[in-house]
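Fold this sequence, please.
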Amino acid sequence: MYDASFDGIQLEGNRAQRWLWALRVAAIAAVLMATSSAAQIPGTPTLQNAFVAPGGVVALDYGGATGSQTYAAALSYVPSSAKLLFAGGYGWRNGSGTRQNGVYGLRLAFPFGAPKGSFGFAAFAGVGGGPQTTIRDTLSNTTEVPIGLSVGWRRFFGGAQGFSIYATPNYVFYSGGTANGNLMRVGIGSDIGISPALGLSLGAEFGGTRQAALGGPSGVVYGVGVSYVFRRR
């Protein structure tokens, strides 16, 4: 005998499974945007994941470069439309020839492409800087304004595990110090979803250089970040 009620139960079960899968993907995607939380803090690499998910992420970041170290905390938020990411952060930078100083960063990113696709794209712009400081007897007060694109690829392994890799070419305007300038830089990063709430980010930035006395960067800048998803929709 044909049992219509069984088909109804099966249909509801399939819907529930699809919703569960979608929620898991959104959770992992939120973790995989961890590096974006670094905003545009001087002394950390300019990295921007191409994938975002609605909700908020808080992160602790470390950036290293020739003769300097940066420690920072950052926060990012994506509204339910997932069409915009806002990130901001604050930290401390120190190194050879300079005292410890506060640094800040702000960034907006605009993802586009298929929300659940393996490949993603984004455009972004930011600003970062800090108070005046003396580096090797030269007064430096640099503000950085990067404008760039991001292209990324991601892979999920089921459950709460996944990772993404991405490239972030960007054009950076510098003002302050004793001279203005601009550079072309490229960031390469990877974000790893350890659980639905915890993520790890690794990355490096290289390209054009600027004198350390003017605020740098004078070579490769690398970074490590740990993030926690505290809100999801």
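Residues 4-31 form the longest helix (28 residues). The helical segments are 4-31.
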